[in-house]
Amino acid sequence: MLVFSLLSMSIPVSADTPSTTISLDKSTIVLTVGQTDTITATVLPAGAADQNLTWISSNPNVVKVFNGLLMALNEGTAYINVMNPSGNSSYASCYVIVKKPDSTMEINKSSLTLSVGSTETLTVSITPSQAVHWTSSHPEVVQVFNGVLMAQKLGTAVITATAADGSRSVTCTVTVNDAPTSITLNKSTATLGIGKSSTLTANISPALPTNAYLMWQSSNPGIVSVSGGVITGVSLGTAVITAIASDGSSSATCKVTVTASGVNPIRLGGSNRYETSVQIAKQGWPNGSAYIVLATGNNYPDALSAAPLAQKYNAPILLTDKTLPQVTLNEITRLKPTQIFICGGTGAISKTIENQLNGMGILTERLEGKDRYETSVEIAKKLGSGSGELVLVNGYEWSDALSASPIAAQKGIPILLTDKSTFPDSVKSFVKSNSFYTTYVLGGTDLISNQVKNQLPGSVRIDGTNRYERNINILKKFEDSLDLEKICIATGADFPDALSGSVLAANLSTAIVLVDNASLKSVTTQYVTNSLQQTNDVYVFGLQGVVSDTVVNKLFAN
């Protein structure tokens, strides 16, 4: 390839022929892609023939030249050479630099979702302004006409917009679904107090078209107002909150009730402890259960460890008297179990009851020991110890075990009983034979001494001045793992209702708050005020005589 100087040059042919030279008016030019320019050539001496000048580009892919007219095609460099082949040969050159145009190109959507049959419009901004060519990678899925999309069938297509000069392009990935957008809310029902607020969240799938948005409406703003999903109780009554797509394609509703207490009380109770346990079972196991845990309603020790076992087998806890109450028998018939776990020895639940159950075609398994401590070990063995955690309670204080029962049940943690000052051999042997790394010791040294606590792996004490304070401190310890949009309430005066309700609370992923029906404790009301402001459903175990509506209203009216 010839390399030409940037300067004009002449080459004499013979001594007796006049010298001819060619010069250009520009030695260097900078252009952008798409631009044109003109170079003028001068031939000396004056009058020398110049009509036969030949123009050549060293890189015509970058710059083309026609009789001195330059056209910049692509980024790069080239020499423009001019010569006069007739007579004396002379040459001149101009160095041309071509740059990309200083332009921008943007598309309003890089991805979107459409349903079959729907349309959408894409727009492109491009500087300097020029035409845009649109293409679809799969026109059978999405067709495009000047940026207007038409969803044809399920699939994905890449829509490409290309500048007319070919210098750049932008894309949008379009997914086509077979169904129009659906909207679901995190709640279908909610309860508020006057002046109290909660937030509804909408799940939209697939996404709304870009020309649509979500609107919120209240059927009665005088009862419940709504703004961006935040609902507020205005006055007593009921209103329906609707989340609706602005194009009317889909919607979802939530029925909101404004009450004096601000919660929805669900009372599960009967005329006695046996009927209450049945009402709890009906609530939690409406379609029956393959397993049941049976405990005596007359004393608590043998059943304090039962909730984690019941949760493992998704079984309700039913209570029995010395003979099987008819209400309990009827519930067993309704549940249609194949197996019943009997907690405790024949002193707690008689052999007669066991035979009665076997006669109904139900397999029974009795979990018992020589005392309450060994019985807790036998239940723990049936549960298994895979969690690596352990709950230890005083075998003569039922409230701590039942405060922890729903939490232990959710986590699969065994509950073991101990004496205050002496660590029972059966419990000690079980602990040593398993790989526990954390032990939750419930109660102060007046319930479990340090001598006992120090024999346990990774022991953590959860204390309180009374059963109500310990109940709240246990809830606080595990609060992050609880769903506190629901809570259970039981009397702290006796064990049966909390025992029966412990597995239902576990199924609801929540806990039990123990209350004094005669005089609410400040530690309880403070916890409800600080931690249960978003609680919606309150499951109350027992009738008015054990947990009154007045107590529930006082708890949640703060």
From TrEMBL:
Pfam families: Big_2 (PF02368), CW_binding_2 (PF04122). Residues 18-96, 101-173, 179-255 form the BIG2 domain. SUPFAM superfamilies: Invasin/intimin cell-adhesion fragments. Keywords: Signal. Residues 1-15 form the signal peptide. The keyword Amino-acid biosynthesis does not apply. PANTHER family: GERMINATION-SPECIFIC N-ACETYLMURAMOYL-L-ALANINE AMIDASE (PTHR30032:SF8), N-ACETYLMURAMOYL-L-ALANINE AMIDASE-RELATED (PTHR30032). This is BIG2 domain-containing protein. The lineage of its organism: Bacteria, Bacillati, Bacillota, Clostridia, Eubacteriales.
